[in-house]
Amino acid sequence: MNKENLFLEIINKTISDNSYLGDDCAYIKELNLLLSQDSLIEGVHFSLSYFEPYELGMKSLLVNISDILAGGGVPKYYSVSLSGKLDEKFIEEFYRGLEDISKTYNLKLIGGDLTKGDKITVSISILGDTKGRNISSRKNAKYKDLVYLKGYHGSSAMGLKMLNEKNYDKNNEFIKAHIKPVLYPEIAYGISKKAKNYVMMDTSDGLYDALYKVSKASNIGFIIDTNKVQKKVEDKNLVLYGGEDYGLLICLNPKYKKLAQELNLIQIGEVTKEKIVIDGVEVSEDKSYQHF
To answer: Do the beta carbons of residue 208 and residue 247 sit within 8 Å?
Structure first.
């Protein structure tokens, strides 16, 4: 068992009510809200050698918006906790990045916290509205569901590889994919308005990671054809296991096939009773992303 799963198991055993845990967003049904929180830590998730404060502000908010979209909600409000060796210029540029993304998604900043620290750490809490929408859950996948994918995979991982090799060309399409991920609100809204009992999960920790987590939560398997995955890189490891593409993995009942066609979703496989089989080969070991 990887450390993240071990820690989550301890948390689930320790708290008295874990009914809200299990997905990237907590669904608070009685308030019609989704709540999510993500952190970005210098030296773990980014380096200031290639991230400008403005870019960090943009990406910090985009990765949180992604969770709300994948959960089936509409992002509405967020708060930011920011710590590190901060100065006036960093604050101005970082919040300018937040503001530009806020305008795009009609989001409102409602508070936060500032404090000093040894490394830049960004933690954002975000609220999404669920009224009139059906909410996603990793537990919703059923045998014979069709599996769809939106977005190019492997591009962000390739961009990070190039940045780590000190290629800082911000005009490169792979580096762009890593610095400012593309989200798919029109897809998320279309699914949550019309589909029921579906799975929609972003691929922030990699395509295989999303498949693995849905498989465990729903107690099902997958047959996947990577030839059908949109990609601009040939390295299969980057496509399957490289993270931060923020595509959407979607499992739908076959009755929603027309909806999938209307949204231009690409079918990459189907849900089976057990085992994850990729290109005819069973992947039996846990190759999900290791956070620790």
So the answer is: no
Torsion of CA 290, 215, 261, 74, to 10 degrees: -60
Query: pLDDT tens across 6-54, in order?
Result: 776 787 788 877 777 767 789 999 999 999 999 999 988 999 999 999 9
Q: What is the dihedral of CA 231, 235, 240, 245, to 10 degrees?
A: -50
Q: Which residue has the tokens 């490289």?
A: 242
Sorted by sequence, the CB contacts under 8 Å of residue 33 that are 6+ apart come out as 27, 73, 127, 128, 129, 130
Structural domain count, the chain: 2
Same domain, 88 and 165: no
DSSP H or E stretch at residue 89: helix 88-105
Distance CA 145, CA 29 (A): 25
Residue 3 within any structural domain of the chain: no
3-state secondary structure at position 40: strand
- Is-contact 244 158, C-beta < 8 A? no
Q: Which residue has the tokens 């908010």?
A: 61
Residue 188 is part of which domain span? 138-282
Instruction: Record the pTM.
Output: 0.92
Contact 119, 41 (CB under 8 A): yes
Amino acid (one-letter) located at 121: T
- In order of 81, 225, 283, the CA distances from 113 in angstroms are 4, 45, 43
